[in-house]
Known about the structure:
- The structure holds 2 protein chains of 2 kinds.
- By secondary structure, chain A is an all-alpha fold.
- Chain A has one domain: MetI-like (MetI-like fold, Orthogonal Bundle).
- Chain A contains 11 helices and no strands.
- In chain A, helix 8 runs parallel beside helix 9, helix 8 runs antiparallel to helix 10 and helix 9 packs antiparallel against helix 10.
- The C terminus of chain A is likely disordered.
- By secondary structure, chain B is mainly alpha-helical.
- Chain B has a single domain, classed as MetI-like fold.
- The mean pLDDT of chain B is 89.
- The chains are: A mainly alpha, B mainly alpha.
- Chains A and B meet through helix 1, helix 4, helix 5, helix 8 and helix 9 of A and helix 1, helix 4, helix 5, helix 8 and helix 9 of B.
Amino acid sequence: MRAVLGKSTALLTEIWLPILTVVAWWTLSSKSTSLYFPPLSRIISKLGEVVTTRFASDILPSLQNLAAGLCISVILGVICGLALGLLPPLYTAFQPLLEFMRAIPGVALLPVALFMFGIGSDMKVAIIVFGAFWPVLMNTIDGIRGIDILVKDVSRSYNIRRRDHLTRIVLPAAAPQIIAGIRISVSLGVILIVASEYVASTEGIGYIELQSARQYYMDVMWAALLLLGVLGYLLNVLFRVVEHRLLRWHRGLRGTDQGGTK
Amino acid sequence: MLVRLLHYGRKASGVLTIAVALAAWELGNRSGMLPRSMFPSMSSTFEALLSLMGQARFWQALGLTMLSWVIGLALAAAVGIPLGMLLGRVGFLYRSTRLLIDFLSTIPSVSVIPVVLLLFGATTQMKVVLIVYGAVWPILVQTAYGVRDTDRVLIDTARSYSLSRLRSIRYVLIPSAMPYIMTGVRIAAVIGLLLAVSSEVLGSAPGVGMEMVLAQSGGALAPTYAYVVLIGLVGVAVYLAFNELSRRLLNWHPSERGVMT
C-alpha cells in the first residue's frame, strides 16, 4: 500500500508541471487573436491534419532519409572506427585531419552539398552522414582504445582467432561507447534532416514548417514544430530503451548504473 | 630522448597526413578525377580564402558570427548554471522539471529557426535567442547532474561547520560540480557555433554562413569551399580553446574522478 502511494506521488511529481504547462498554454491561448500565437486547440487539430494527409508525401520521406543517413553513418563509423582503433599509428596519423573535418558543422556543408548532389534525397542523406558519422567514429575509437590491455593480452595468449577476437571481445567491450555515440548521432541526424529540408526542398516536415511560416499559416507551422519535437523525443526515448536492453549485461558486470543519476 | 622522438614522430605523422590529403585534393582535381564542376582545386580554394581575408566585409561577417556566439553562450551559461544548481539542490524541482526539460531539449534546435525568424527577423538578436535556446540545455542538465553528484559527506561537513549558504555554494557545490559544468559548457559551445552558422545559412542572418550561401548561389565554387575551410578552422579553435580552459580550471581536480564526457 505504502509502496503504491510512494510510486504514485513519484509519478505525480514527474508529471504535474508538464500537465500544468499544457493546460496553461491551452487556456491562455484559447482566445488568442495574435498572428504568431494561435490557440493550442487549433494547432492540435492542424497537427492531426498534417499527420493524416501528409504522412506519405512529407513525413515518410523525412523518416526514410533519416534512417538511410543514420544507417550509413553507423556502418561507416563502426568500420572506420575499428580500423583506426585497432591500429594506433594509423589513428595518430589521421587524428588532426579528423579533428578538423569533425569541427565543420554539418549545416555549413549544405551549400557544398548542393554543388555536389544537387537537390533531392541524395543531398539530404549525404548531409546526415557527414554530420552523424563523427560521433560514431570517435566513440568507436575511444571504446576500442579503452579496452583493458589485460583482456587483449589474454585473447592473444589464448590464440583466439582474429574474427572471434573482433566479434566477441573488441566489439562487445566497445559497445557501450559505440551506442553512446549512436545516440548523439540520432539527435544530430534529426537536426540535419530538418536543416536539409529548409534548403531547396519540396518535401519533408521541415519543408512544411518553413513553407507555412513563409505563408503565415502559423497554426501549421506550430503543428510541424510540435511534430518535430515529438519525433525527436520519441526517437530519444526509443533509443534509451534499446540502449538499456542491449547493455543489460554491461550494467550487471559493472554492478552500477552508468546512465547517470536517475 | 626516445619518448621525445616518438612525440615528434606522432606530430609529424599528423602533419604528413594533412599534407598528403591536400596534395591528393590538388592532384585529383588537376587530373580530373574529382569533377571540376563540384570541387575547386585546393590551391584555388586557399587563394580564395586569402583574398577573402583581405576584405573588410569578410572580417565583418566573421565578427558578427562570433559576436552572436559569444553573447549567446554567455547568456546560456548565466541562465543555465544558477538554474541547474537550483534544480540539483532541490529534489522536488528536479523531478518536476525533468520531463519538460527532456522534451524541450530534444526538440531539434534548428527547427526553432522559422519561429525566431518570424519573431525577430534576420538579425543578430534572432541568432542570440536561437543560440541561447540550444545551448542552455546541456549546461543546465550537466550542472544539475554535477550538483546532485556532490559527495554527501562534503555537504554535511559544510553544514556542521555552519558554513553560510553562499560560502557552501562557493566552496563546496561549485568546485565539485565544476567538471560537469565544463562538460556542459563545452557541448554548448559546439552547439552554439552550429546554431550561429545554421541561422546564417538557413535564416539569412548576416555572418559567415550567409556569405557562404551568397557565394554558392553565385556559383562561386572556390569561395564557397574557402568558407567551409574557415568554419572548420573556427570550430577547431573553439574546441581547442575550451579544452585548454577546462584543463586550466580543473587542474586541481583529482584525476581519478575522471573526465566526464
